[in-house]
Each structure stands twice: as structure tokens, then as C-alpha cells.
Amino acid sequence: MEGNIAELGQYIGAGLAAIGSGAAAVGVGNVAGNFLSGALRNPSAAAGQTATLFIGIAFAEALGIFAFLVALLLMFAV
Amino acid sequence: MATEAQGESTGLEFHPMEQFIVKPLFGDGPVQWYTPTNVTLWMGIILLAIIALFVMGTRGRAIVPNRVQSIAELGYGMVHKMVGDVVGKDGLKYFPYIMCLFLFIVFANMLGLLPKAFTVTSHIAVTAVLALAVFISVTVIGFVKNGTHFLGLFWVTSAPLVLRPVLAVIEVISYFVRPVSHSIRLAGNMMAGHAVIKVFAGFAALALVSPVSILAVTAMYGLEVLVAFIQAYVFTILTCVYLKDALHPGH
């Protein structure tokens, strides 16, 4: 069992950061699901709100991307 | 036999991140700022593709457009409508810049999906420049158009007075995080998607799982085509939102 403890921590940390991607998936699903339930109640108003939908998805996704970035930094930059 | 032994020893026959390495086009020398690399090549191809679609394609200026001209007109009309809807009429002055951003990103994403292609937008260096250009120009436009009134963006007058300093700190932080999230969203999505495709492609070497992995590559590729367009759309629409904040800073 050779290898240094820092590398071990790096890999474990990258794996833990991947949990953030799952959390972002929950957020994106929440945004899209709520949009769909609202759109089915009032379909005539749905077309005008697609831009808002994409902005909401983008904001929810950004935080997951931060987790991905932390994983990448741990794997390749530290 | 030699390749088999090598494949067994390393597990994967290629590294999934290998496709993102910036290489010089000629020779193996170190990459300087003037070295023509695969990034240079693919940026040139992107530029030529945009010119082919928008300059050559619309050269006929037909009343009843042919196929190429309709694609160009659809793209133009979509971004024009987006700017008009999100920013408002006074934002149409900045439409050419936003159209440039959209075209560059959508062509970079789509051409990067070709086999053996290099995805320019998968590098944070490229997207950070795009996002910083948006951030700086939007901040300058905000101060030029509204003067110090632009700082009202950080002072939420609709909130109770006690909460306003706290909200101001949060608003300032979120304002300065904008270029970070703006650039990393695009680069991260592109990089992650291409890496996933490569990982599935690596499994195709094992006879047992190769049918599944080939199906998975096909499915991921379809998803990536969608993501390539949606990320370009999201980048453009967020630029519009930031521009709207700069032109109308009131809450």
C-alpha cells in the first residue's frame, strides 16, 4: 500500500464533489417539473415563459457546474 | 498482442480527457501565443462556416428563400426576437454583438461534435474571454447609461430597510460571480458531455458490453446535440438578462 495520503484525499474529495451534480439534477428537475405543471394548467401562457424556464434551469445548473469544477480542480490542478 | 497487453494494463485504450489537449498543428514544439494549434484551425473553420451560412447562403436575397437562406433567417429572427423580448426595444442597438456571440458559440459547439473535431468552447480560457467581455461591456454600458443610478441594482428598495444592507452584500457577490458561472457553465457542459461520450466509447473495446456501450454513445450523442444548442441559447439569453439589468437597473 504505497502512495501518499494527499492523493487519496484528492480522489475522495473529487468523488464527494460529484454529489453536487446530483443535487443540481434535483434542482433542474424541480424547475422543469414545476414549469410543466404550470404550463398544463394554463397552456396559453406557457409559450411566453420558455425564456424564464431556461434562465431558471441555467441558474440551477450553475451550482452543479461549480461542484463539477471543484472535482476537476482536485483531479487535475491540485 | 502488443496492443492487447497495453490495453489490459491501462484499462482504457485512450484517456477521455485526451481530446482537449491543445496541440501545435506542425511539429511538436512548445505552444507559444503565435503557434498555430488545433484551436486556431477549428476557430478558422467556425468562422468559415458562419461566413458560408450567412454571407454566401443569403447572397441570393430571394423573396422566397431557399433552404440555406431560410436557416440563416430563422437563426437571425430567433436571436432578434429574444433580444427584443428580454431586453426591450432599446436593447436592439446591441443586437449585432449578441448575434455574434450566439453564432460563435452555436457553431463551436456543433462543429465540436464532429468525430475527431476539437471543441473550442470546452476550454475555460475561451469561454472566460467571452464571459468577461460581456461582463465588462455590460458594466460599462450600465454606468454610461444610468450613471450612479446603476448602483441602485444592488440596493433593493422593495425590501424592508433593515434587510437592505444584507441584500446589498448578496447582490454584489452575485454580480461578481456572474462571469464565473457564465463561462464555466458553457465550458463544463461541453467538456463533461464529450468526456462521457469518450468514456462510453472506451467500453466498446470489451466484447461483453460493446453493444450497450455503442447504444449509449448514440444516445449521448443525441443528447449532446441538444445540449450544444441549449447551452448556446442559455449563454445568449443570460447575456440579454445582464444587459437588461444594465439598461433598466430598477428592481
From TrEMBL, chain A:
Keyword Iron-sulfur: no
Transmembrane segment boundaries: 12-33, 53-77
UniProt entry keywords in alphabetical sequence: ATP synthesis, Cell membrane, CF(0), Hydrogen ion transport, Ion transport, Lipid-binding, Membrane, Transmembrane, Transmembrane helix, Transport
InterPro entries: ATP_synth_F0_csu, ATP_synth_F0_csu_sf, ATPase_proteolipid_c-like_dom, F/V-ATP_Csub_sf
Signal peptide: none
V-ATPase proteolipid subunit C-like domain boundaries: 12-74
Pfam families to which the protein is assigned, alphabetical: ATP-synt_C (PF00137)
Annotated coiled-coil segments of the chain: none
Membrane topology: Multi-pass membrane protein
Molecular-function annotations in GO: lipid binding; proton-transporting ATP synthase activity, rotational mechanism
SUPFAM superfamilies per record: F1F0 ATP synthase subunit C
Site entry (Reversibly protonated during proton transport), positions: E61
Location of the protein in the cell: Cell membrane; Membrane
Any single Gene Ontology cellular-component annotation: plasma membrane
Entries under HAMAP family matching the protein: ATP_synth_c_bact (MF_01396)
Known role: Key component of the F(0) channel; it plays a direct role in translocation across the membrane. A homomeric c-ring of between 10-14 subunits forms the central stalk rotor element with the F(1) delta and epsilon subunits. F(1)F(0) ATP synthase produces ATP from ADP in the presence of a proton or sodium gradient. F-type ATPases consist of two structural domains, F(1) containing the extramembraneous catalytic core and F(0) containing the membrane proton channel, linked together by a central stalk and a peripheral stalk. During catalysis, ATP synthesis in the catalytic domain of F(1) is coupled via a rotary mechanism of the central stalk subunits to proton translocation.
UniProt similarity note: Belongs to the ATPase C chain family.
Name of the protein this chain belongs to: ATP synthase subunit c
Organism from which the protein derives: Paracoccus zhejiangensis
Lineage: Bacteria, Pseudomonadati, Pseudomonadota, Alphaproteobacteria, Rhodobacterales
Gene field: atpE
